[in-house]
Amino acid sequence: MKKGILILLGLVLIGAGLASCGGGPSTKVRVATDATWPPFEYVDDATKAIVGFDIDFMNAVAAKENLDIEFVNVAWDPLLAGMAQGTYDAAISSITITEDRKKDMLFSDPYYAAGQIVVVQKSNTTVTNKNDLTGKVGAQIGTTGAMEVEKITTATLKTYDDIGLAFQDLMNGQITAVVCDNPVAVQYVGKNPDKLKLAGTVFTDEYYGVAVAEGKTELLEKINDGIKKVLAEGIIKTLEEKWSK
To answer: pLDDT grade, residue 105 (50/70/90)?
Structure first.
């Protein structure tokens, strides 16, 4: 009996050794995302899966660093609050890196340049840039777009939990304009060219980053290392081509 136990123990140790040679077990990481922001993160109507530019990007980073990603779909405000409280390990959700947000969470190196832009109805001839904005202007709550609208004294901010609802109100004539990230604006205008158009050009200089919970410096290092690797391989161009269709 003792001989059998020793043989079994030996096999277990050999198996463990082989596992370690293969890179070891992957690290489980809960990643929050607000899947209402196409083409970066949204729920596919057919499959009900969370898809998009950011999802592909994070999965590519995870593959480089042997991270086991679990995406959690959560609304924008609870996402930011959850990151501040350490509810999630990380978050990727078109999150602009700001000094204010750095007080509550860590940030990876930037991976995408994006700025704010104005969208109006196709028939609008009075708004040509942000300085022309008057009346109700829509933006997603808690975003840099909402912060920019609040700076415009002639405009009244109307916030939405889902940016898609803001664009719906714009097309229905219930608000004057929408202010949001340029890639998202381009996506909505591209899908509704007979109803929407861009007004002016990008008027802020912003960069997306992966948010990481305070104290998780090892995870941050892994994510930064993965970002460096995938950026070197030209992943941004590949994903832009994929998700602009």
So the answer is: very high
Instruction: Give strand pairing partners of 61.
Output: none
Helix (H/G/I), strand (E/B), else coil: 177: strand
Q: Which residues contact 110 (CB under 8 A, 6 or more apart)?
A: 97, 207, 208, 209
> Can you tell me which residue has the tokens 């993965």?
226
The tens digit of pLDDT for each residue in 151-171 reads: 999 999 999 999 999 999 999
Q: Which domains are present in the chain?
A: 25-112+208-243 (3.40.190.10), 116-204 (3.40.190.10)
d(CA 154, CA 194): 27
- The whole-angstrom separation of Cα 177 and Cα 7 is 73
Share of the chain above pLDDT 90, in %: 87
Mean pLDDT calculated for residue range 182-200? 95
- Degrees, nearest 5: CA angle 150-151-156: 40
Contact 162, 180 (CB under 8 A): no
- Rounded to an integer, what distance in angstroms lies between the CA atom of residue 222 and that of residue 201? 35
Peptide bond into 39 cis (omega under 30): yes
Reported pTM: 0.78
Enumerate residues 6+ apart whose C-beta is below 8 A from 165: none
Handedness of CA 41, 45, 50, 51 (dihedral sign): negative
